């Protein structure tokens, strides 16, 4: 199956934005750009009241950056542009005036944790363990860091960043505030997501938009901040250490 980003109309006022990639829902530049554009477009659509963000497939929610594309980076500008793809998605979610419910059915790695952290209300299954693996390849979670830090706090973010080999359980992620609820299976997760969406559809959309602005107060500098963070990753991905590690996956 080919990679895609598509929008599904669930009911009046409610849409799903779904992304998919055959390699464990990893995210190459073209899918990142399409995802950011779709979130921005639907956020401005007056007929949309609530957004559900999900990935396709039954297992991994998102494996993060596309290793195929990381391996091919040979200059700073290309590297920075690639990592700006994640920055643009996070900023699109931050600026979207509609509340975004996250549906995380499986593991989230690297950039996938950044996506989950940028949801306004994120729900998951017990299989949705999380991992910030960037240090393993000689970089760090610089671009997704502000979103993860904002959601789970500096201590938990530091723990995940330093212990880059470890998957942290969905229950751990819930205790830190990343997930709001954890379900036993995808069927229960989908029912829970729909219940929350129906509830939000019954509430004042103007109040929701005002609340979203309150939730994201203090992030007004993120356009510049994430640009600077993308530059850090763009530089490190060219290091001899990272090149040697990535070569193992070629």
How would you characterize the overall build of this protein?
- The chain is α/β, with parallel strands linked by helices and 250 residues long.
- The chain has one domain: 2-enoyl-CoA Hydratase, Chain A, domain 1.
- Helix content is 49%, strand content 16%.
- The strands form two sheets. Strands 1-2-3-4-6-8 form a six-stranded mixed β-sheet, sandwiched between helices. A two-stranded parallel ribbon has the order 5-7.
- Helix 3 (76-95) runs antiparallel to helix 10, helix 4 packs across helix 5 (145-152) and helix 5 (145-152) packs across helix 6.
- The longest helix is centred in the middle third of the chain and has 20 residues, at 76-95.
- It starts with a strand and ends with a helix.
């Amino acid at each position: 199956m080919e990679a895609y980003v598509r929008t599904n109309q669930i009911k009046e006022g409610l849409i799903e934005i779904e992304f998919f990639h055959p390699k464990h829902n990893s995210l190459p530049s073209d899918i990142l750009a399409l995802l950011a554009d779709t979130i921005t477009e639907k956020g401005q659509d007056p007929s949309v009241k609530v957004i559900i963000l999900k990935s396709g497939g039954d297992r991994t929610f998102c494996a993060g950056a596309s290793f195929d594309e990381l391996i091919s980076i040979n200059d700073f500008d290309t590297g920075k542009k690639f990592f700006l793809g994640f920055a643009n998605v996070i900023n699109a979610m931050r600026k979207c005036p509609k509340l975004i419910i996250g549906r995380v059915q499986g593991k989230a790695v690297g950039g996938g944790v950044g996506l989950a952290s940028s949801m306004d209300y994120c729900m998951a299954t017990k299989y949705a363990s999380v991992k910030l693996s960037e240090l393993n390849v000689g970089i760090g979670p610089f671009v997704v860091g502000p979103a993860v830090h904002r959601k789970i706090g500096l201590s938990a973010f530091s723990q995940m960043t330093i212990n880059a080999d470890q998957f942290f359980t969905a229950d751990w992620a819930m205790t830190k505030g990343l997930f709001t609820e954890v379900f036993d299976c995808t069927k229960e997760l989908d029912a829970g997501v729909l219940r929350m969406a129906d509830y939000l559809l019954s509430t004042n959309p103007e109040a929701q938009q005002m609340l979203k602005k309150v939730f994201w107060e203090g992030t007004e500098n993120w356009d510049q901040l994430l640009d600077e963070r993308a530059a850090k990753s763009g530089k490190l991905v060219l290091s001899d250490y990272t090149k040697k590690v990535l070569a193992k996956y070629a």
